[in-house]
Specification:
240 residues; alpha/beta; seven-stranded mixed beta sheet
Amino acid sequence: MTVVPYKEQNTGKKEQVARMFDNISHRYDFLNHFLSMGIDRAWRRKAVNLLKAQKPRHILDVATGTGDFAIQALDLNPEKITGVDISEGMLEVGRKKLRDRKLDQKITLLKGDSENLPFEDASFDAVTVAFGVRNFENLERGLQEIHRVLRPNGQIVVLEFSRPRKFPFKQVYHFYFQFVLPKIGSVVSSDKSAYTYLPESVAAFPDGGDFVRILTTLGFKQTQCRSLTFGISSIYTGTK
């Protein structure tokens, strides 16, 4: 069964995810950093550092949200970064952030569907996705699109939540994700469904070796999973 934010609605996952992020866009950055206790910033740095050896000139950030990963990717000194997202609300917050920091000449944020990317084949040296692949309506279709727009030898870097497996962190994580995070998220964002959907979508996501196998099946090479912070999050990499 597909996990969706608003179970009473008859619309598809894609439409519901866009609506959800539109609803919480005004508080998303604050909650992201607060609920992860700031660890998400370190995770992004580690993910971006994996691209340093490749020195990508053109980078695509899929499910870019408010652009945090795209901004972090400026550490690579690329010529251009393009971010795409299905939520106009998130993009509006991101564009304001870029203007305020005078980064809008380097980074462009566009509304776009990850499963139908509006770019020609082999357009990018690297494609990144941070906390977005579990929101794809069709996971394999989205990954196929990423493969299509990558240049030969281009690299994919995916940062995504995963599930700790070891005692006692597994139990602590489960309690926090199931009971604490939804309550705080609901109060601050005024959207109870968004922060109930988060743990549900993480639980349903094929993390670890399962996701690596999907990447390999779709044609990515040198696939690898790196676990972060006791398994709360993972970085997946592969090349075309």
